[in-house]
Design a protein that fits this description.
Helix content: 10-25%
Strand content: 25-35%
Number of strands: 4
Protein name: DUF397 domain-containing protein
Strand order of the largest sheet: 1-2-3-4
Structural class: alpha+beta
InterPro entries: DUF397
Order of helices and strands: EEEEH
Number of helices: 1
Shape: flat
Organism: Saccharopolyspora terrae
Largest sheet: 4 strands, antiparallel
Domain DUF397: 7-58
Distance between the termini: 33 Å
Oligomer: single chain
């Protein structure tokens, strides 16, 4: 999946030490990358799968 991502952003809950991930939007996918090593590239996920993931997080599917 080759796509240009724009509007990279990280959570407002993130601290100042770059210990988080950020997301960028593309036409058909969402890019996910590590703020500590942006040059390493990103993981591209189809928008529908990313929305499924966000929904699961909001529903508490990953809580211990």
């Amino acid at each position: 999946m080759t796509e240009n991502f724009v509007g990279w952003r990280k959570s407002s809950y993130s601290g100042p030490n770059n210990n988080c991930v950020e997301v960028g939007r593309g036409r058909d996918a969402v890019g996910i990358r590590d703020t500590k090593n942006r040059e390493a590239g990103h993981l591209a996920v189809p928008v529908s799968r990313f929305l499924d993931f966000i929904g699961a997080v909001k529903d508490g599917a990953f809580e211990r």
